[in-house]
Amino acid sequence: MVDHLVFFAVREGASQSEVDDLVSSIRGLREEVPSTIDLSAGEDFSGRSGGYTHAIFARFENTSGLQEYLKHPAHLAAVEKLDATTSGRIVVDYEF
Fewer CB in 10 Å around end: N or C, the chain? Predict the structure, then answer.
């Protein structure tokens, strides 16, 4: 199994509708990308995120599934929204 984690910070000045659209697009990837086993995305509520406002969790059977996800047109469209709406992100992928 492979887990894909993304932590990102919404940029100052981003509207709530932009953020809602981004999160909705990310959540939709669960149904759009066949190799996705599980996926969730949401806003941090703990205050312990080190400045990151949101997170994404996605799970795949193997690294090939992750690669399919990363190259999928729906994912690439979500990344464009992510680039336009955020000021920074960190990505961690690990196999277990």
Answer: C
3-state secondary structure of 38: strand
User: Per the structure block, which two tokens stand in for 36?
Assistant: 């996705």
Q: What domain range is 49 assigned to?
A: 2-95
Q: In what order do the strands lie in the sheet with 54-60?
A: 36-43, 54-60, 2-10, 86-95
Structure token pair of residue 75: 């994912």
pLDDT band at residue 93 under the 50/70/90 scheme: very high
We report the CATH number of the domain holding residue 67 as 3.30.70.100
Cα(93)–Cα(7) distance, integer angstroms: 12
